[in-house]
Amino acid sequence: MGGTIARLVQRGHRVTLIDLTNGEPTPHGSPEIRQQEAAAAARVLGAERIGLGLPNRRLEPTLAARDLLAGAFRTLRPEIVFGPFHEDAHPDHVAAAQLVDDARFTAKLTKSDLPGEPWHPQWVFQYFCVHLRAVPRPAFILDTTGASQLKSQAILEYKSQFVIPEANRRIPEWIAAADIYFGSRIGTQAGEPFACREEIGMRDLNALTRLA
Hints:
By secondary structure, the protein is α/β, with parallel strands linked by helices. Helices cover 39% and strands 13% of the residues. It is built from seven helices and six strands; from the N terminus they run αβαβαβαββαααβ.
């Protein structure tokens, strides 16, 4: 959802990326390399970034992890939270989706020892990951026209993931092709799909994008 991040920042929104884990170990990376790459990608998109230090490859929606993320929500006080789609081939992504839902609920609780004041993000939207080989059926598609170059640049900052390993070099191309496809569904040059497990309300039909 790099295009969405870039568009939100361009429109004056504050965006904070929360890394649940450091993504290591991987064949060509290290904690230090991944931190440098993540920071560089965030700078490209204009977003802030924090890490929670939870274990990669062993991520679980435990009470401790839930409280840690809920504390971040209470400190940052986001109106909208984006997390991975709840169905995915990567177990960490499935756990992360559950953690987002659990932490959203926990963050609003009073009489707790969590940092900050109670807070409840109004919306949770889910982005789709590349591990599940399925075509998403989104609740909505966001127009990301004009942000494709920034998104591509941010992806390529992860050199240990998409530049050095030859097997992964086509992934940025596939992502770019998906952006064009989803943009075509709403009559724009590029788009990113999102799911939502709650009904989405509109004040009027002017919020709808005209289809091509």
